[in-house]
Amino acid sequence: MIVVTGSLAFDYIMNFKGDFKDHINPDKAHVINLSFLVGNLKKEKGGTAGNIAYSLGLLKEPVTIVSAAGHDFNEYRKYLKKVGVNTLKIKIHKNDFTARAYILTDLKNNQITSFYPGALKYTKSLKIANSKPDLAVIAPDEPESMNNFVIECQDREIPYLYDPGMQLPSLRDTYLRQGIKKAKILIGNDYEIGLIKNRLNFSEKDFLDFVEILIITLGEKGSIIKTKNKEYFIKPSKPGRIADPTGAGDAYRAGFLKGYLAGFDLQTCGQMGSLTACYAIEKYGTTNHTFSLDGFRKRYKQNYNLDLKL
Predict the structure, then answer these.
(1) Residue 226: is its pLDDT beyond 90?
(2) 185-189 and 38-46 beta bridge pairing
(3) Is 250 an annotated catalytic residue?
(4) Number of alpha carbons in the 13 Å side-chain half-sphere of residue 3
(5) Catalytic residue among 250, 265, 294, 307
(6) Domains held by the chain: number
């Protein structure tokens, strides 16, 4: 069983029919004042914990969310339960809203996001579980909460995937170092891993002195998975269409973890992550995709010419 910590949020997703960089003057970066006319606006069910758990539910992996939400969460809770996600550890705060993410995407799939934490500020008092899960996911959340979950996992010897992601600007260096120090898996995109390197003065060898597995996602170029002894390049699966890249990384995490807990080799795990991400980007929003295990197996063979014994 996997316990997933992180945010639960409603995503307000917008598209800008241009390229952000065409509207940024590097000489005036210290006085940026920009306004983008958007072509559409949709409210979707999201958040890092919700996104990861949703895809794990589709993959029939037992999963529990440990997080907090507001008085407006009831419909989202029912939605998660329908795909098999255990929501009993989600603490509802009736005097606050569920968190909000405002996500603007340009034509090159670059994104600018602002985030209102709402009820997430109460996650600092939460614990992962009374029983010991097979693995915990520490995904972007309120920074102090993330650090509390890290300490709990280390004290109780719970293996965990550490995913600082969008909270990198808010995490103190001490929190970041603590999270990486005993993680089973560290994951981030190439920009995020580069940022961590610079902040902590790490080399890639330094990462692998602490973590067993380092995953670097590269968007449409695939991903790289590294251990002390081996490096795997993961060829990207082919999406039928690209509707919205939001949530692709969270879906990748779910697919990878499903394979990892099934005992598959890391090449297969990465390919499962890539395929799960494809389902996400083919639908607008982060939790609107769906698939059956039989359909997943068939599409895996189409992409990688291998049978997946799932």
Answers:
(1) yes
(2) unpaired
(3) yes
(4) 25
(5) 250
(6) 1
